[in-house]
Amino acid sequence: MLSPSIRNLAISCAIFSLLIFVIPEDSHSADIGNCLLCHKYPGLSRVDEKGNLRLLYINEKTFNSSVHSRVKCEDCHTDIKKIPHDTAKKVDCLTECHITEPSTEKKFSHKEVQEYLDKSVHSIYDKKGGLKEYPEDMPTCKKCHDNPLFRPLSFFKGTRYGISEDSMSRCRVCHKKEEFIVKFYNHVTGRLHRIRNPQNIAETCARCHDNPDLVSKYGLSTKAVFSYGETFHGKAAKYLDERIPDCLDCHVNKGESVHQMLGHNDPRSSTYKKNKGKICSNVDCHPKASPKLAAYGMHAEFSLEQSPVQYFYTAFFIVLTGGTLLPLMGIIFLDLIRRLFPDAVIRRRKK
Amino acid sequence: MAKLPAIKIKDGKKYFFRFTLDQRIQHIVLFVTVIVLVLTGMPLKFHDMAWAAFVYKMLGGIRGAPIVHKVTGSVLLLLFAYHLVYLFYNIYKEELVPLKKAEGLSPLKVLKVLAAQPLVPNFKDAIDIRDLMKYLLFLTDKHPAPRKFSWKEKFDYWVPFWGILIIGLSGLIMWNKILATKLLPGYLINFSLIAHSDEALLAALFLFIWHWYNVHLSTSVFPMGTVFLTGYLSEGLMIEEHYEYYVEVMKKEGLEHEIRPPHGEHGHQARRKEDPPAAADTYNRREGDRTP
């Protein structure tokens, strides 16, 4: 017996399928299962068991600009075998998909990434291999990643998602099939730079690192993204500067996977006390910088516990500002009143 | 350059000399650079505000605005250096050289000359502040009678003066962080950022609230005082803001008989036309002649 919500979904899909008489012109090869038959309709949604509205609409153009556009729907949604289908299970990113990795000719999956993650500070396992006390607090794939979109390389003038017509024109000299050019171009260029801008990356990290519950639970010294946001780097990131360093630039050793981020107490970590000096002076940032520059407090906050000297130094300026402006504003206020009654005076009684 | 007359008469009204062309140009460069620096700096300090992104984009965004800020800051620092040279050269030429010829120089005499400069705060300012508070609190109807520069103007001068020093020095450290941290520890950048940003906020609020009230918004000058353009102050404002200096200049120019009474001596308004010298004499007798 189907539950009411699933039955409703099934009926909706059936109605939609009756209404369909035009197959989308730019239907994509990945949609072999014809999932877009229903999911192409904006507004396709349902209320799940928890009462949350789930949008089930897939924007085909957007999906085709994403890194997963070559992956068939059923490669990830492995539990869906028929249409209309039951409530789909959550996608497991470690599933082997039907893409073949060309150098090894093996089925592709994200297992390698999980191995890196397991060695990182974000692993659900502790150093002895046992489960951490709160494994649910550690990030999983989908906590940080959605379905990222290709975007133009930042040093080209992009005209649409993932495409720089300037560089595409070079591809077209030899390659004639447009779909191949677009896909190959996106695949290669998508890996030459970050798929997210620095602000986007900071926002992703903020989901946990600025969460007050997690910050206090783990005794972290700062709300890391908030304090990053108070530096010039963070402010430039906010104004969408692509060249500015984000969390990953400092917290991951150059050339290593960002999934293998290590804690600042780990001697292999880029933020370990002895290694810190190399962060700022790396070739892409401030190559001539002395190691002393890395003593800059990137995560400084107005906190007595974190730095009493900086706390009182900042407090001095706050008091100076208030102590200067408030009396002067008081005088302005009195002056405004006095100008209303220029002749008035409280006369003292003569003795 | 020919010395400008202490009093100019135009359409029968007296105007009192306040600022040379050089000083007026310095002031214009100062306020233009300060406004540009505030516009290109505050969107970074208040990056969470809705207006910040809009203002920053207008001024060149994250690529252009920092360049505008640095270039403008450099102009302001050059102005500051020029002002110091201008200031000390004039003191040397007009006061120290004659003193040297007359009496000879000693460190104590130099210090006395410096302390007697019209913009240096002194005890008379404390008296003027006390008198102003008495006036504002309706305890008297007599205005204070400041000298050439009132305590308000001294505030207007010294807040940006020290502000430029602190903001300029911290700005240079942040701009040249690689060089600075070859010599000094990296956390100095944190302290520079706090000083730069907080002192700039203080200076900006001070100028846009206090200074603008006194020179733009106060009913005496609204919508704008013109002394920063013409270099001359009207007799009415001279009486209201610098009465003691007004009396001094009038006497020096041989116009004792035309000295008008101070503001607030309301009974004198009618008497002034008939017997102005008597009114001034009344003031001088009451307050004592404190003119230097």
What does this structure look like?
With 351 residues, chain A is mainly α. Chain A has three domains: 4-91, no CATH class; 110-148 and 196-295, no CATH class; 307-351. Helices cover 39% and strands 3% of the residues of chain A. Chain A has 15 helices and four strands. In chain A, the strands form two sheets. Chain A has a two-stranded antiparallel sheet. In chain A, strands 3-4 form a two-stranded antiparallel sheet. In chain A, β3 (100-101) and β4 (106-107) form a beta hairpin. The longest helix of chain A has 33 residues, at 308-340. Chain A is extended. By secondary structure, chain B is mainly α. Chain B has a domain at 19-117. Chain B has helices at 21-45, 50-58, 61-102, 107-115, 123-136, 151-175, 177-183, 187-217, 227-230, 235-241, 243-252, 268-274, 276-287, and strands at 7-10, 13-17, 232-234. Chain B is globular, with a radius of gyration of 23 Å. Chain B starts with 6 loop residues before the first strand and ends in a 5-residue tail after the last helix.
Topology record:
The complex is a heterodimer of chains A (351) and B (292).
Chain A: H1 4-19, H2 36-39, E1 45-47, E2 53-55, H3 60-64, H4 73-76, E3 100-101, E4 106-107, H5 111-118, H6 141-144, H7 165-174, H8 178-190, H9 198-209, H10 212-217, H11 224-229, H12 232-238, H13 247-251, H14 277-280, H15 308-340
Chain B: E1 7-10, E2 13-17, H1 21-45, H2 50-58, H3 61-102, H4 107-115, H5 123-136, H6 151-175, H7 177-183, H8 187-217, H9 227-230, E3 232-234, H10 235-241, H11 243-252, H12 268-274, H13 276-287
Antiparallel strand pairs in B: 1-2, 2-3
